Structure formats: structure tokens, C-alpha cells
Amino acid sequence: MRTAKDRTAMIVAIVAIILIIIMGVTAGQREGLTKIEEWVGNIISPVQGVFSTGVNALGEGFGSLFNFSKINKENKELKKQLEELQSEVINLRLERDELEELRSLRFTLNQFEEEENYQSMVANVIAKSPSNWFNVFTIDVGTMDGVTKDSIIVAANGLVGKVYEVGGNWAKVVSIIDNNSSVSFQILRDNSIQGIISGSISNELSGYLFDTMADVMIGDKLITSGIGIYPKGILIGEIKGINQSGNQLTKNIEIEPAVNFKRITKVLVMKPTVIE
Amino acid sequence: MKATIIGILLIINLILQSTLFQYFAIFGVLPNTALVLIVSISIFTGKGKGAITGFVAGLLQDIIFGKMVGLNAMIYMLIGYTMGSINEKLYKDNPIVPILLTAASTVAFETINMVFLYLMRYRIELFNVFKNMLIIEVLYNSFLSIFIYLLISKLYKTNRLKKRY
């Protein structure tokens, strides 16, 4: 009896130590997944995909039942917005023509092209992490569709995150509101004001500005600055709070992300194409 | 036979947790039904099987969603082992038992998690963890444990009866 008891304890202890070692190895940046992980993911992901489409459809159905008056109101607002946008489109078209002209001028002047090419494709979110610590979700495209590690994930209205690990027909995405992710940004209105934002456990975005004297205000829109893996010019969100510390040493901001991370079902995967 | 049922239960739980239960977050906090399941199963099976159950459930979650492999597997295994090793001293029909044990293991789970994430150089905001996560999660898990414990106890009681006759 005594030896049997000791044996279980021993096995548990040894396995725990082995797991800690595995943790240490897998915690850093890895090149790819092991065969076992890929295999498990390939089997479970399709099932999750079927489940989540069903659940999402159900959720939307229920939501629209209860929010009928809200949808009506939203419809009116959207129509109004559409009119405004249409007039804006016309203005932008004029500006675009001008921009193209200037671009062709630059080309003739032999300036170097700094544009990067990205190929994009649509993906479904199939499952979200059950853990309260991380904001990780899986999507239904993988190496078979040409997704690589560090591909950029965007939604219709802003930046979502990046691909962390890729399996055969699935990929793990870490969102920008995750505990340990950070993005360098600039203010849309004035691109000389830059800083870094990071996520937190409570899934709120907060960050700081490099220049503590910079003039920012609530409602300013943030876009990616192009430093790091994210390409320049993707909308992140807008400032909803500014805290200046008493000694003027830091200027912290709170950000309302442009994407609603709770209701995310479809995303765009942007994979960098290699220019040969 | 029982092992197959438990295995299927764990996989179904993971799928539900990652899809359906996302809609049932309270103040942004998700219930950890995997933990509740492991506690309930370990109370009935004992430490060896409890540890194995925890290990399998944790490893599955690590592979699909983890940023590193082994963290959940290790904590779930230790909790399964501990809960299983006190199972002989418990009066299993008392509904307070699963509630208290679930609450205790939720606190243990999050504390060990926090220590390891701290060692992995993650940013831990201690105050936010307590305020935004731990209290709600403990209450939520304890509440759910009543139903999950009943389900698991049914599974084991019917099997025990079958054996007797």
C-alpha cells in the first residue's frame, strides 16, 4: 500500500517536472508546431468550426428577435451615414487622382518603392480560448491555404492581431488586446505623435506616448505606425482617456479598440508575399 | 468504458467552452468548466485517475489555445491528484463538498497560473486579477459545480450499481 501510494506521487511529480521543461521550451518563439499538436488541431478544429457556425447563427437569430427596434433605429442612422460617406467618396476620388499623379511623378524621379505587398483572404473564427488569461482564438485557414506565422489579421474596421502558430487547416491568432501583445502606433491626425499600446488581463488596451508633451485629445484615432510586424496605416481604435502623471514623466492613454472582440466571427488574413 | 466516456466528455467540454460558453461570460469572465469537471471526476475516481484526467484535459486545451504547451496540463494534473487523494475522507452526498472544493481549486489554479506566467515575464496586474477575474470566476465555477457534480455522480452511481448485480 505504501509503495503504491509513493509510486503515484512519484509519477505525478516526474510528469510535472517534464511538463515544466516542455513549457520552457515551447514558451519562446517557435518555428512550427510538432506533429502531435498539428494532428490534434486538425481533428478538433473542423468540429469546432461546425459548432461555432451553429452557435453564431443561433445567437444572431435570438439577438435580432430582441433588438428589433434597435435595428430599425440603426438602419436610419446607417442611411444617414451612407449619404455622408457618398459625398466624402467623391472628394476622396478627386484627391486620389491627385495622389496617383504625384506617385507617378515620384516613380519617374526614381525614388525607392517602400510599398509592401500583402495578399489577403477571408477566414472564419472557429473557436475562442476558454482561458481568462489570454485572448487567443483559432481560424479555419492554415498552412494548406498558405498562411504563415506572423501573418496579420484585420477585421472590416480595424486591426485584430497576428498569427501565432499555424497547423494544417487551422491557425492560432493572438489578438492585440491579449495580455502580452504590444503594437506601436501613431496618431492619425499628426503622424509625429507616436507611442506603444499593449493589452492587459482585463482585455483593455492602454499605452503610452513617447513624447510626454504631445498634444492629444479624447477621440483621436490611432493607426499602426509601421514599426514592427504590422504594416503602416491600419486603424487600431480611438483614445477614450488620458492620464498625465503628476511629474510629467509619462503620459498614458486608454484606447477603445475599433474592433468588437467579443462578437468577432469573420476576419481577413493578410500574408506578406515574397517579392522576387 | 468509463475512460472512453470521460474522454468524450472532456472533448465535448472543450468544444462547448470555446464556442457556446463564450456567450455566457459574466462581466467578461468565462467559467472554467474543465476545472469543475476535473474536480468532480477526481472526487469519484481517486488520485491516479484524477491526475490522468487533469493531464489529458489540460494538454488538449494547451495544444488548441495555449501560448505554451504544458501549463494547463500541469496545473490540472496537480489539482486532479490533490482532489483525488482526499476523496476517501469525504461524504460524497453533501452538496457543499463540490462547491467548496471547486472554489478552493479555482483559487489554486489561478494562483499557480499567475506564478508561472510571472516567471514567463508576462505582465501581471495583481489588483486587476482579483477585481476583474478571480472573485467572479470562483462564484461562477462554484455555481456550475452543483450541476456538473450531479451529472458525474450519476455516471458513477449507475456504474457502481451495475457492478453489484
From TrEMBL, chain A:
- The coiled-coil segments of this chain are 68-102
**InterPro entries per UniProt:** Cell/Rod_1, Cell/Rod_MreC_2, MreC, MreC_beta-barrel_core
Gene3D superfamilies xref list: Rod shape-determining protein MreC, domain 1, Rod shape-determining protein MreC, domain 2
Task: Identify the keywords attached in UniProt to this record, alphabetized.
Answer: Cell shape, Coiled coil
The protein's matches in Pfam families, at most eight in alphabetical order, are given as:
MreC
Reply yes or no: does the keyword Oxidoreductase apply: no
- GO CC annotations on file: plasma membrane
Q: Which GO terms describe its biological process?
A: regulation of cell shape
Q: Where is the Rod shape-determining protein MreC beta-barrel core domain?
A: 125-271
Q: Which domain of life is it from?
A: Bacteria
Q: Give the UniProt family note.
A: Belongs to the MreC family.
- Job description of the protein: Involved in formation and maintenance of cell shape.
Name of the protein described by the UniProt record = Cell shape-determining protein MreC
Automatic annotation (TrEMBL), chain B:
Intracellular or extracellular location(s): Cell membrane
Q: Which InterPro entries match?
A: Cell_shape_determin_MreD_prd, Cell_shape_determining_MreD
Q: Name one GO biological process term.
A: regulation of cell shape
Q: Which GO terms describe its cellular component?
A: plasma membrane
Give the membrane topology, semicolon-separated if more than one: Multi-pass membrane protein
Locate the transmembrane regions by residue number. Answer: 20-44, 64-84, 96-118, 138-156
Recite the UniProt keywords alphabetically: Cell membrane, Cell shape, Membrane, Transmembrane, Transmembrane helix
Q: Highest taxon of the source?
A: Bacteria
Pfam families the UniProt entry points to? MreD (PF04093)
Q: Work out whether the entry's keyword set contains Hydrolase.
A: no
UniProt record similarity statement: Belongs to the MreD family.
Q: By what name is this protein known?
A: Rod shape-determining protein MreD
Its organism's taxonomic lineage begins at:
Bacteria, Bacillati, Bacillota, Clostridia, Peptostreptococcales
